[in-house]
Design a protein that fits this description.
By secondary structure, this protein is an alpha+beta fold. The protein has 5 helices and 5 strands. Helix 2 runs antiparallel to helix 3 and helix 3 runs antiparallel to helix 5. It starts with a helix and ends in a 14-residue tail after the last strand.
Length: about 160
């Protein structure tokens, strides 16, 4: 493909002149930056629920209007583009809203263990009388020595 040839030429040039090997090329149109900036400006006033909905809307706009280009195209981008095509005009945020409405309240923790950086992710959803539920996210670093996951058969 022409993109493969172009990418390889760019990669060779950068590696030869700067000693750096690039793994991908990412191009963003100005509208992409504007959308992300407007999303970030509203962050302090947004709930997690509103944040997720806004982020899903931005992702969908970026894909539908082809405002972002990554080469070689990662699998997640291919998946998201296919999802947009499959939904055929249905917004990601509306799908999230529907899924969220049928999921009952919960409180869950996930441990992502590694030798260098064990992480604890806590997610809590509480249905309230308000229009949207309360969603709480918490991400904490764990000290491996303090928590012996293997001893407690957590992992």
């Amino acid at each position: 493909r022409n993109l493969d040839v172009l990418f390889n030429r760019i990669q060779s040039f950068i590696q030869k002149d700067h000693g750096i090997k690039i793994s991908c090329i990412r191009l963003l149109k100005k509208r992409t930056i504007d959308l992300i900036n407007s999303h970030c400006e509203r962050l302090t006033k947004s709930t997690y629920y509103e944040f997720i909905q806004s982020l899903l809307d931005i992702i969908q706009i970026l894909l539908e209007q082809e405002l972002i280009f990554i080469y070689p195209e990662p699998n997640i981008l291919r998946f998201l583009k296919s999802s947009v095509a499959l939904l055929d005009g249905i917004k990601f945020s509306k799908v999230f809203e529907f899924i969220e409405s049928v999921i009952p309240s919960f409180n869950a923790s996930f441990i992502v263990n590694s030798n260098n950086l064990p992480i604890l992710l806590k997610i809590k959803k509480e249905n309230t009388k308000s229009l949207h539920p309360e969603i709480e996210l918490s991400l904490n670093l764990l000290e491996s020595k303090k928590y012996n996951f293997h001893e407690h058969k957590i992992i």
